Amino acid sequence: MKYHFFIVVCLLNSFLYSQTKKSTDSVSYYNKMVDSNLNNKKYDQAVFYTKKSIDFSESTHRNENLANQTFKLGKIYYNQKKYEEALKNFHKSVSLFDNIKPTCTKVLALHYIGVANTAQGDYETAEIYYKKAEDLLNQLKITDHAEVLNYQKAMALKTNKNLALAAKSFREITKKPDNPSLIKTKIDSYYQLGLIETQLKRNDSAIIYFDNALDYNAKTSNLAQKSKIILAISQYYKQKKNYDLAYSYLDEHYQIENYVLKLKNAKLDFNEFEKFKKNQTINNTIKRESEEKIQLKTYRYSKLVSILAIALISILSLLSLALYKNNIIRNQNNLLLREKNKELILAKNKAEKASKARSEFLSTVSHELRTPLNAINGITHLLLEDNPKKRQLKYLESLKFSGNYLTTFINEILEINKIDSTKVEVENISFNLKELLFNIQSSLKELATANKNYFNLEIDEAIPDNLIGDPTKLSQIILNLINNALKFTQNGHVNVIAKLYAEEEDNATVYFEIVDTGIGIPEDKLQSVFESFSQGSIEVNRKYGGTGLGLTIVKKLIELLGGEIKLKSEVGKGSTFTFKLNFKINKEPLEVLEEAKPYSDKQLQNKSILLIEDNKINQMITRKMLENKAIQCEIIDNGEDAVELLKVKRFDMILMDVHLPGINGTTATKLIREFDKTTPIIALTAISLDENRDMLLSFGMNDVITKPFVPDEFYSTIAQFFD
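^ that's the sequence the OP posted. Answer follows.
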């Protein structure tokens, strides 16, 4: 890696004192022994000779050598993950450097103290020493290698599994201007970001970073680096179940590995030949000297050399034959693997063809409905704000209800398709389960009162306050179940129970039960109610309404979180839904987040916004919504003209439709970010299966607004970017 080169340069600088003309110099000898043992992974011997070198430097009063060798010992311990021993030697090295002129080795010692503390999780101490190393680096006027040290710091954070901070450091490196000395570090940073995104199961973001790494690698001739990037891309397509592309990249990876292996073998053969020539020269010299003294002894030595040469040639021949056979076997295995992969792909395509067609159809329908639905909801909102007549108000409220109902229906279709296509990612964040359940109860009190139901919540006090899981999906599950219970129950009781089922070390299992005294479900319908668009009977659907998708989503989400839902019901007596979920326990206190302040009209007044939207109705609605808040709005209907306009004119904000004629919104955003890094860009999208918030943000957008707009959320999202 690049920082290894920097370390070698620093150590070479520092060891000049020890490189005298005398071939018997002990420091030089010990260094050679240390390097030889490290290459052979004999760490105990490396430590032994380093300590010998330290003792020699101390006895000869060579303080700079003593500081350098102490640092080297600390580095050996660090590479073995013996952090306490490493820190002890790094601190001693820094102390020795305090009495002599500082060198770049002292910078490394300070930096390694930071890295070792990072690896142990002590970030506060680590930051102090990173700052000291940076200050000394600036004092020595060595700036070319600062990002190399930042890369090593990021790797230490990744080793300690602090992926968020590690990703932040890697991104800072990638944003630095391109220069030849930084290109390899940038490639490694993009590669590590891809691995982190893969580990967090954000595969769509991961492939962007891998592609960036591959693009930068094309400017170099580093085949080993290219091989590992291509292997990571192959793994990505394998996870996406695109076996054709996965195999293609895997095949390219093996080709590069074979080429690198051939280069190494060629170099090995050349070195062996040079060694043979050297031995032959030595033996010839011995032969000439021996001939002058004893002819018999010379003959014996000559015969021995011939035997050794024949043995060496035989060994090399056998090795070459073995490599040749291994290459043949590998090619045969690759051919067999290719055939098997083709068979698997054909079988998979046949098995999933019907399911894929259904999923794509529903996704396309739900996506295409969002644009006209945005027009319906938007015009309804504008008419309601325009002081309608009293007799018109009833019709507009009905239209608003119908629009919201259709929006919910489309969202539920898209949610099911996302789960079926494995595009839903599970979060793992800290949350307070008790507080979440109380908030759900508060939000549904009005519905309970409307149906004259007694709505009770029972929470086990033994449940830990802070759990780690996915609160969004858990809320969606519980909200759907309670909504159903309250909707199908009148003048009855709805009980929500949460109990601690089991607790072991850092894990807790929570049991949930939702009980109602409603209409109940017939026994022959207990399984079918979890199927899409099913509500038990046509009469129930007509009387109570609804999409018939709520329980389908609940079942799929519970299974996604590792649980299983169970249902008991009797017609006329009610229903009971139960399930258990596992959570990790967070020992640290949960951070209290301040509630976001609502926006004010004053924040939005006199702001200038560029709207890039090709749909004429959406242009009219969005402009009117903005002008109602005293915002100046200019409209462009394609990405190309928008990019050219923004080169000569600035706005306070850009609203960017993702799907545009010509270049799409994501491409336009990338082009704008090449010359404008600061202007907020908000994506407007009728989001589909192939889109998600993280993917859109990776192109340089600051936030995402989903069509159809909810007016208050639309204004709040815009306002957060204005003071």
